[in-house]
Each structure stands twice: as C-alpha cells, then as structure tokens.
Amino acid sequence: VRTMAAAPQPGKSYELWAVGGGRDKPQSLGVIDASFRISASKLGNIDPAMMNDTMFAVSLEPEGGSPTSQPTGPVMYTGKLVATE
Questions:
Q1: Do the Cβ atoms of 56 and 6 come closer than 8 Å?
Q2: In sequence order, what DSSP letters do the residues of 40-77 get, joined into one string?
Q3: Nearest to 31 by CA among 6, 66, 3, 5
Q4: Full pLDDT tens readout for the chain, 85 residues
C-alpha cells in the first residue's frame, strides 16, 4: 500500500475496501490514516486465483469510517492488487 496524496477533510475519513474476487459485497479493510498497514490475512480466505479479480476502492466516509459496514460515501480511488514476488 502506498501513501495517498489526498488531503484530509474535516469530519471525514478515507476507508479502504476490497471488491470482487469472490466476495458477495464490498469488504472493509479499515480506515486509512498516516500509519495504515494491512496484512494479507485481513483479506480472508480468498482463493489465490481469485485475487486477480479483486478491486480495491477508497471511499470518503464519515469520521471513523462507514456506519453501515458498507460504503456510504463517494468512491475517490480504485486500483488492483499487483504481486511483487
């Protein structure tokens, strides 16, 4: 995960989501801040072959993250996971 150049917005948080790759609905991976890190285990038991079908999205949510466990704000960024090894 690389640091985003997005400016903080008062009363809002950026939240990272995994979409697709065998998931029925978007899966929150957490609220993003300057110290944000994520381990592969957070993605759950996803078939490695399906990882290429996983899209990541960052939504703008109320401060502290989505109140519904699903994205509620606009999607600001999207991207794919790229293997480095």
A1: no
A2: GGGG-S--GGGGGGEEEEEEEEETTS-SSSS--S-EEE
A3: 66
A4: 455 567 778 999 888 899 988 889 999 988 887 666 666 677 677 676 767 778 889 999 999 999 999 999 999 988 886 655 5
Backbone phi and psi for residue 76, each to the nearest 5 degrees, phi listed first:
-95, -35
Q: How far from each other are the two terminal CA atoms of the chain, in whole angstroms? A: 15
Tokens of 82: 């790229």
Q: Dihedral, CA atoms, 73, 74, 80, 84, nearest 10 degrees?
A: -60
State the residue for tokens 């400016």. 7
